[in-house]
């Protein structure tokens, strides 16, 4: 006599639930890795990402780059925000390698002052000169990021973090610079540049 064995359905989760479970597992795994300290990829990336945002001298200069690009228009609108993080990465590598660079803090403070004045006065130099000026200041910012790299952090992840944060600050400046199209907006952008220049002057006096 044959017995009919009913097969019970295998336990399975709906697809949305499966995705939720996988996401929770990934978050738990990430949190566990984060407890390992800054040696992990996440620790290095987050440290690098937060470093520009935590320094007002970095923030004002990077926003000024986006503002100045908006004032100058195409192609400076995209060229300057591309030049800055690329050259900054080079400066960061020099800092990581321990290559000395004199007057780094002074250069960072001057970047806020000079770029802020360029926005406030709507200075329109040749495109190559604007790119060179932005690149020079980017070396100082990058070197500061590199020398302050946590000793246990991943240099590559840290560099990616501060380059991404820098790009977002440039985008913020470009977004504010979109006001340049209107008369009242131009006054607001110039006033913002003046505020950045004053902040840069304050940083410079603090350095001196």
What can you tell me about this protein's structure?
This protein has helices spanning 15-34, 41-54, 56-72, 76-96, 104-120, 127-147, 155-177, 183-207. It is globular. It is built from eight helices and no strands. Helix 5 packs antiparallel against helix 8. It has one domain (43-207). By secondary structure, it is an all-alpha fold.
Quick summary:
76% of the residues lie in helices and 0% in strands.
Keywords:
208 residues, 76% helix, disordered N terminus
Low-pLDDT parts are 1-40
Class from secondary-structure proportions: mainly alpha
Q: What is the chain-wise order of helices and strands?
A: HHHHHHHH
Please count the helical segments.
8
- Radius of gyration, CA atoms, in whole angstroms: 24 Å
| Record field, number of beta strands | 0
Distance between the termini: 99 Å
| Proportion of beta-strand residues | under 5%
Give the count of structural domains.
Answer: 1
Q: Main sheet, how many strands, which sense, barrel?
A: none
Instruction: Calculate the mean pLDDT score and round it.
Output: 79
- What spatial form do the alpha-carbon principal axes imply? globular
Helix content: over 70%
């Amino acid at each position: 006599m044959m017995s009919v064995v009913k097969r019970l359905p295998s336990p399975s989760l709906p697809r949305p639930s499966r995705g939720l479970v996988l996401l929770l597992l990934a978050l738990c795994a990430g949190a566990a890795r984060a407890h390992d300290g800054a040696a992990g990829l996440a620790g290095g990336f987050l440290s690098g990402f937060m470093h520009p945002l935590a320094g007002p001298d970095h923030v004002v200069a990077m926003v000024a780059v986006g503002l100045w690009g908006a004032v100058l228009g195409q192609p400076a609108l995209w060229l300057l925000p591309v030049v800055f993080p690329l050259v900054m990465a080079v400066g960061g590598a020099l800092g990581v390698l321990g290559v000395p660079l004199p007057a780094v803090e002074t250069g960072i403070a001057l970047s806020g002052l000079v770029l802020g004045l360029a926005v406030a006065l709507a200075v329109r130099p040749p495109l190559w000169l604007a790119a060179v000026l932005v690149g020079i200041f980017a070396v100082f910012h990058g070197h500061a990021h590199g020398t302050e790299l946590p000793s246990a952090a991943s240099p590559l992840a840290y560099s990616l973090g501060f380059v991404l944060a820098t790009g977002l600050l440039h985008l913020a400046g470009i977004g504010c610079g979109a006001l340049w199209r209107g008369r009242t907006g131009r006054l607001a952008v110039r006033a913002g540049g003046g505020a950045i220049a004053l902040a840069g002057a304050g940083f410079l006096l603090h350095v001196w």
